[in-house]
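FAQ
Q: What does a multi-component entry look like?
A: The components come first, one per line:
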Amino acid sequence: MTPILMNSYLQLGFYIAVLIALAKPLGWYMARVYEGKPFGLDRVLGPFERLIYRLCGIKADEEMNWKLYALAMLLFNFAGLLIVYALQRWQDFLPLNPQGFGAVTPDSAFNTAISFASNTNWQGYGGETTMSYLTQMLGLAVQNFISAATGMATLIAFIRGLSRHTAQTIGNFWVDMVRTTLYILLPLAIVLALIQVSQGVVQNFDTYQNVSLLQSTVDANGNVITEQSLPMGPAASQIAIKQLGTNGGGFFNVNSAHPFENPTPLSNFFEMLAILLIGAALCYTFGKMVGDTRQGWAVLAAMTIIFIALLALCVISEQNGNPAFTKMGIDQKAGALHSGGNMEGKEVRFGIVNSALWATATTAASNGSVNSMHDSYTALGGLVPMWLMQLGEIIYGGVGSGLYGMLVFAIIAVFVAGLMVGRTPEYLGKKIEAYEMKMASLVILIPPVVVLGFTALAVVTEWGKATIYNPGIHGFSEVLYAFSSQGNNNGSAFAGLGANNPFYNLTGGLAMLFARYWLAIPTLAIAGSLAKKKHIPSGPGTLATHTLLFVTLLIGIVIIVGALTFIPALALGPIVEHLIQ
Amino acid sequence: MKTLIRPALLLLLVLTIITGIIYPLLVTGIAQIVFPERANGSLIVKDGKTIGSELIGQSFDDPKYFWGRLSATGPFAYNAAASSGSNYGPTNPALFTAVQSRIDALRASDSSNTMPIPVDLVTASGSGLDPHISPAAAYYQASRIARVRGLEESEIRALIEKHIEGRQLGFLGEPRVNVLKLNLALDNLVKQ
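Then the predicted structure of the entire assembly, as tokens:
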């Protein structure tokens, strides 16, 4: 093995090892937070927490049934959405707008408001040329916290549905939101933000800095340019939470490829770790809360196995490079002095390994931040992020939403196993019956309908075709990627597609809305139904759901559903592109 | 329903104040005290004048300077106020045109150089602001710089070697050279 290859394995292995090692301590901590047991920080911030409840008129000990919980969640998210919309529309009259940006157009503001409320963070706009500091802070950064907390609250309600028996309620939405924000997201975000600043991520409220260039250059119109305008702003605080909360919306246009958003390999490591950190740890939280940590490890194992397999495909495809470049006599072979591979759209400090690792992690989770341009990936390298989104954002997935999506797949897996042996399926001591299966079917059917429906609409209308950027097959991939991303609340893009226009802003906005809330509601319905049921002790005929057998079954179900639904569409895009290149 | 609206609006307000105002101000406060230079853009100041940021690349196409990555920002390359990649797909003819014109420019400015061209020197970065090139891409340009500046190639290669930044902590990221810093050092070398 060459030293270069060994270093690649070392970087990938180190990442996965740190991620798994942190799952238990962080997962344990989060379980304490949600179970209301002491965990240290509550002694410091407890009075503050209770003050919030008093100020807001929240009765912390009053629990909600699933309908009330869902209604609270929807109301809260809708109110947040309206505020983000209003901030964008009126930012030209509001303070903290040193660059004097005008109001955002109605269709773009609509898309962006849904995008941030639904934890998608699809961005049709470029941050440094569109949004005032106030909009970024009060609108977008706040939603980064709130949408992440919403996902985690919904998951915890779902877990309560599994762990409680003969119960009418699944928790108090307000309490879950406050505790998630105060005890989990804020402390992690503060630590991560400061690490990022130490590496060079900007954090200030200055106007853009003009600096004189060493060598002057000429712009497209022939004007001589002697200065460069460096963007500034409170970037680190926003970047920390966009990574941790699987939001992904960049402060700057190119997201974490921007040197002010992600300046060094170390900042890159921590940002990448933050993408999957909470999602992986929640698996342990789940196991802890249902009283059997093996259940959590089994789900985490299934996720990690799929992740590693697709990661390998992405890294190898990108490292092999673009076959056309080789014909042009370009050196793409990795060596001690350069990383080689397909470097179009990638940064030298990250090279191939850290770019492909990020692309895989950000689409396994519904994060959607990028540190390289996915549109310029090789055909198979680009297929990986696309398919990971299409699997339903359940390989770690969005914080909270990823695990509840995966647990719905676990319910389907026990159902399929039950069909094979002719027994009523059970999961964690709860009988899975017709109502749960109907709701679970909704959860797996809605995203593909949204993704494929809107993709079809876009490629048969002039509105959809007009702003495709790359010619030929790759243009189709751009559209499929866009709706796979929005229809699963990811937010990354094949960014060549011109998406900031009424057609894509509207269809994309609807896709994000459906994907988020049409999935959260049936999930909470399952929770409500399961909470009411009696707990049945497992017998000799019960399928154990912590074994290697079950992990294999779960992986099989996820892959089969994902493959059957999307292989035809993928065949028209990246697969053909790979065959003809 | 009514009982939900009041806590929804009030909680939204309280969480907005905490996460939208207190949190960024707290981070800014600490950052400005502990890492002021980093928090403000890692600026390079020379003779009292700000001449760039060590994190943001600048455009170079003069043969006497090291060239950086291709940049797809508009309306001019390395426009730091409008970061952007090329977003060319792997089979887009426009990609091959852009790559070929960089190859032609490199060959034209140094026709006797027959070394293979490292891929990062002919492709556009993701941000359009990549401050780095690979050490291979810097060494590739050594012969041209030496000829144009009338210096020994060994001197240039020694300068490059001095500017190679290794992997962070010994294994993270890729070895690289900061183009702006290297060019500033190059100008200094000539002055001495």
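Q: Is there any commentary attached?
A: Sometimes. For this entry: The longest helix of chain B spans residues 2-34.
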